[in-house]
Amino acid sequence: MVTHGSPTRHLISAYRGVSANLEAVPLPRKSLASREPRAPLGGPRACVLACGLACLLALVLACFPVAAPVRAADDNTTTSKAPPATTWPLRPLTLAEERALQPNQRFKECATCPEMVTIPTGPFRMGSVRGDGDRDEEGPNGQPFTVTIAAPYALGRYVVTVRDYLECSAAAACPPAAWQDPQSPYHAVAGSDDHYKRLGTALSDPRHPIVGITWKHAQSYITWLNGKLGLASAHGYRLPSEAEWERGARGGIENLKYFWGDRFTANSANASGQSGADQWPYTSPVGSFPANPYGLYDIAGNVWQWVEDCYHPTYADMPEAVINTGVAWESTCDDAGRRVLRGGSWIDLPRVLRLADRGGSPPDMHYGYVGFRVARTLAH
Ligand SMILES: [Ca+2]
């Protein structure tokens, strides 16, 4: 395929590949937000929605005996590859604690907050390393290029889960995921469209990644999380920049297609189909596959992950300010306002799960194979 920049590209690739069972998977749907303007939060509908979401959350938690995502770090089952000892205050870090964090250190600022891992700053090689990727992975002259991460930051160790997001939507601080909205044709039970319905229990299992959320929904979750912790938006949780995402995803690996090597193995990630350790036809519980060298899970596969940047079809014109700091490249979004997606998903062929692969989508689109991972700015 020579078209670039949309997860549709990968979906089309999957269609034309080998996976016949994917042919029933519908194309990405236009966001409800763009077709069915919602009433602002507040008023009778919001009350009904909030009550409905609270009931749904209670029902989900009642149906699944595990009250929180099964996370290796929670039950001390991590291996020797796990990051070093954790700062685990279960309250917002003080500025002094933030400054004292070391690379690869973990922290969690409330019992149900995302677990975070500090990522090393400094330069790294970004994009397609050997020129064997897609054009949108290439830097100037078709070569990989060096980006420097200037400011300390942390990434979510896991992608945001159903449990995480439902806490926000039950508080009426996040819009419902498409499959939660009783007014939506994509509703998981009553909807006329099976884009989400076909995911079955994977859709609402609290251990699985949240799907059916837009880039804007992800921003709502982050705003709610910062408010809950009393953090200013400029110094708190946010989406990662694309450079920050790739820096974390590579885990120090710059010369391989995947963080585990050049050869894809179904024991390492949830891609399309089911083989080896990948017994998941749709999403899998977060942390079901080995973590990367920085201790991050689901970097490859399971769900695509929204990042902050606008999608650009090449890195060649990346501004110096972005190259020198690794901040999000937010200027010159295209007419559709596309934002970058990274990581590949359960619907994609292995090539799409490479560290350098990219996708993009308008910020009001939602899919059954797109979620997000949070980042946090740290004091220095
Ligand atoms: Ca799979």
Keywords:
paralog of FGE (formylglycine-generating enzyme), globular, alpha+beta, single chain, 22% helix, binds calcium ion, disordered N terminus, 4-stranded mixed sheet, 11 strands, 5-stranded antiparallel sheet
Which SSEs are present, and which pair or pack?
Blueprint: H1 7-16, H2 32-35, H3 43-63, H4 95-100, E1 106-107, E2 116-119, E3 122-126, E4 145-149, E5 153-156, H5 162-170, H6 201-204, H7 215-229, E6 237-238, H8 242-250, E7 304-310, H9 320-323, E8 339-342, E9 358-361, E10 370-372, E11 375-377
Parallel strand pairs: 7-10
Antiparallel strand pairs: 1-2, 2-5, 3-4, 5-11, 6-11, 7-8, 8-9
The chain binds calcium ion.
Word description of this protein:
By secondary structure, the chain is an alpha+beta fold. It has a single domain (105-377), classed as paralog of FGE (formylglycine-generating enzyme), CATH 3.90.1580. 22% of the residues lie in helices and 11% in strands. It contains nine helices and eleven strands. It has helices at 7-16, 32-35, 43-63, 95-100, 162-170, 201-204, 215-229, 242-250, 320-323; strands at 106-107, 116-119, 122-126, 145-149, 153-156, 237-238, 304-310, 339-342, 358-361, 370-372, 375-377. A five-stranded antiparallel sheet has the order 1-2-5-11-6. Strands 9-8-7-10 form a four-stranded mixed sheet. Helix 3 runs antiparallel to helix 5. The longest helix has 21 residues, at 43-63. It is globular. Mean pLDDT is 81; it is low at 1-83. Calcium ion binds at residues 270-271, 273-274, 278, 280, 346.
